Amino acid sequence: MKIKFYIATALVAGVLAACNGQSKKAEAHDHSSHEGHDHEAEAAQTSTANPVLNNEALNNVYAHYIHLKNNLVASNEAEAKTAAQAVKTALDALKDPEATKAAETSASAADLKTLRASFDALTKQVERLIKKTGVKSGEIYVEFCPMANNDKGGYWLSNNKEIQNPYYGDQMMKCGSVKETLKQ
What we know:
Layout: H1 2-47, E1 52-53, H2 56-73, H3 77-92, H4 97-107, H5 112-133, E2 135-137, E3 139-145, H6 148-151, E4 154-158, E5 177-183
Antiparallel strand pairs: 1-2, 3-4, 3-5
Helix pairs in contact: 2-3, 2-5, 3-4, 4-5
């Protein structure tokens, strides 16, 4: 009888040990899969890094423009205002009266709603300058939301195809589509 007890105990211990080992392997596999996923996400972010333009001053404008767009997406009014001022300062260096006027309107916006309303005109000017000088490497996506600006529509530039609407933020994050890709 004692032998049966010892055998049963050994079997139960063996099964538990085996299950525990499988559980740890599964956790390790899940963890390594998760780490691989994070790495893939990082690689995806790397592939959507800022494009390089043929004009160094315009690279600066575009970097500030993307900062502005991202803060409009996030509905971060304070940072969006700061970014709009930085776009204006960077555009001043290009000495383009039309672009400077659009940037001044954005930089002087009193609130997020006004800033979003001025964003389409600013986008059109930055897009015009990019098309004029060209993209050296990478891609810029010209995206459009037909509902922005009281259904008149609104454009924005982005480093990736995923729609993140700066006109509505989280209210209508995915409203829009890619209309054009600017590249070398």
